[in-house]
Amino acid sequence: MKEKVLLVGARATGKSAVGGVLARRLAWPFADLDQRIEAAAGRSIAEIVAAEGWEGFRRREAALLAELLEAPGRLVLAGGGGVVLHASLRELARRRALVVWLKAGVETVLRRLAADPGTGRRRPALVAGASPEAEVRRVLAERAPLYAAWAHAEVDTEGSGPEEIADRIAAMIRPPGREEG
């Protein structure tokens, strides 16, 4: 059994919400990669990107992801939507963690983003000048092959709440009827 779970997927697919529930179900620690980056930098992702560009943010993201994956012990980790852009970390992630791709369609992602008014302040646009719909469509299309290459498993989040999704992932780690020894 792997000691870590890494949740990957686009923005608004439920990585943070599912990760928190899953960590409680497993009684494992939980970390949200974006929140850890913000805490270490003392500023929001939007502020980091404004000061350092996406390259600066991605450097911070890669360093922290590697550190968390290599650290001993159990962990449920909600990765940022772009962690899969770090090709050099894919094998480490797959070796050290059960990587689960949380999937959602364009309309669901747009609805979830619209329901979170703080998203725009915290997370800058990924595609300059694009409408939210155009950005989501482009990012999902570009990253889907990367999420697939990283993931050991895929979970469709359409129509399911964080608890149900967490239960499905927990069953991958601890199949029903098996107690941890």
From TrEMBL:
Residues that bind ATP: 12-17, 123
Highest taxon in the source lineage: Bacteria
Cofactor note: Binds 1 Mg(2+) ion per subunit.
Organism encoding this protein: Dissulfurirhabdus thermomarina
Reported function: Catalyzes the specific phosphorylation of the 3-hydroxyl group of shikimic acid using ATP as a cosubstrate.
GO molecular function: ATP binding; magnesium ion binding; shikimate kinase activity
Record's protein name: Shikimate kinase
Annotated binding of Mg(2+), by residue: 16
Pathway membership: Metabolic intermediate biosynthesis; chorismate biosynthesis; chorismate from D-erythrose 4-phosphate and phosphoenolpyruvate: step 5/7
